[in-house]
Amino acid sequence: MDWKQKLKDFYSYDDFIQPQHKIVKDTRKGYDQLVILPTGSGKSICYQLPAIVSSGFSIIISPLKALIKDQIDNLRKRDILVLSFYGDTTKKEKILLATEIYNHQNTHHLIYTTPETIENNMQFREYLDVLEYRNKLDRFVIDEAHCISQWGNNFRPAYLGLQKIRDFYPTVPIMALTATATPPVQDDIVKLLRFSKYKKYTKSYFRKNLDISIIHKSTPIRVHNRNVLNLIIKEDFRDKSGIIYCQTRKKCEKLSLYLNENGLNTLAYHAGLSKKIRTETETSWKSNEVGIIIATIAFGMGIDKSDVRFVIHNDTPFSIESYYQEIGRAGRDNLPSKCILYYSDADRLAGKKLIKYSFTQTLEYKTTKQEVKKHKTNLKRTIKLLDIFEEFCIDTNTCRHQQISTYLGEKNLESCKTSCDNCIKPLRVLKTVNVSNICFEIVSIIHTLQDSAYKTNIAASFKKRCRHTNKYKTQQITTKRFEKCLTYLRLNKFIKERIIKLKGSYGSMCVYKLYEKAKQILKNNISIDIEI
């Protein structure tokens, strides 16, 4: 098989991006494949091209209907025959699929579906049984395979049902694809899909055309919004294609309104909008009628737009995986693109509240002790991912690309040197400062305040002690140093945050509590040094 010629015939590309060629060739060998390639590496070709030239069928399983529609539209623009079978598929298309299968026509070799359809639709399963009996079921392709793992950032319970593929079709190969998978997530994918003899394909996570920077977020919100506007103007983003991510629907709407009032052309996108408006918004953005889309994470998975010049995170993402996937939507044409994150501890805390609220809302549907225990374990895991992302944000020395790649399991990656804020700024020599006294005071205050140990109360009490304690008069105890010590104590499990609901209100507050090992600080048994 001359794969390069087939690539030219169907996609008009002269050559493969590695390791596409090897993946495509290996599909003929009949074993399972785990494909972990960064966004923009052409994962779709790895399964589409083998299916197009085959006499059988490949079943492509995707988590989102919008993603399926996007893929099908792109294939049909290339005059490649493709069908789908899921909730939104027309009756006409379903009849066409049935005709192909029962009349042995085999002209459409790609069938897109959802995990819910695979598990619950008996008619579709009957079609698959017929194809297997005729030896025409080539492979199952599971896109966004990280969704099967509870270790990942985007776990979808419906994906767990895909384990049954091995029960129903034990001899049919599976190709699992994802852009981000830490080693635990990779192990989960292999274990849950019951891969035995399989090949893994990876590529460096480092994308040198993405310029990553983190900016401290200003308060109040009107100041921050003005900063975003000034950034867009300063960086000449006004007439370019970009995405601004916000944590909530309300923030999307408000920021879009503010930017539009100040001369920009933006649209908001979130799950609260009707399907019609979401489709129109997406179409306007893809056709460059609108340059900037302001969205929640409901937008973006699988979006194939090559000329996105910037991705701005208006709020803190919940994990490194989420962040990497979202910035991966920039610069798919390999041209320079900016990835700017606004970070603040208040945003991190707001994110933590959102996570806890979401888990609390779904807890009532857990009926057994085992389900409740698993649910609480998943909550702790999700909070841990947020903590890891915080460490990424507050690290002002280590290469951003290096941090991301190391976290995702890549080894020995050198610093980018020119593609992140930490590498391009002058090297700052950090000095180590002993902060045992400051940490003692913070822990002591939390112990004294008990249920009133809110951050504002701790800060006020600390300032008061500094004014009345001789041992601090020769030290410059800045707000920044206080914050650094508080963060150190939290990340190193001396103190913990607890989100509590306010009585007679829909609001919540964060109160600080002590872990057992904080007693060692109160006894002056621990010396604490941090880099300033």
TrEMBL record:
GO terms for molecular function: 3'-5' DNA helicase activity; ATP binding; four-way junction helicase activity; hydrolase activity; nucleic acid binding. It holds the Pfam family RecQ_Zn_bind. Gene3D superfamilies: P-loop containing nucleotide triphosphate hydrolases (3.40.50.300). Residues 227-380 form the Helicase C-terminal domain. The keyword Chloroplast does not apply. Residues 24-199 form the Helicase ATP-binding domain. GO terms for biological process: double-strand break repair via homologous recombination. Keywords: ATP-binding, Helicase, Hydrolase, Nucleotide-binding. One of its GO terms (cellular component) is cytoplasm. PROSITE patterns: HELICASE_ATP_BIND_1, HELICASE_CTER. InterPro entries: DEAD/DEAH_box_helicase_dom (IPR011545), DNA_helicase_ATP-dep_RecQ (IPR004589), Helicase_ATP-bd (IPR014001), Helicase_C-like (IPR001650), P-loop_NTPase (IPR027417), RecQ_Zn-bd (IPR032284). NCBIfam families: recQ_fam. This is ATP-dependent DNA helicase. It comes from viral metagenome.
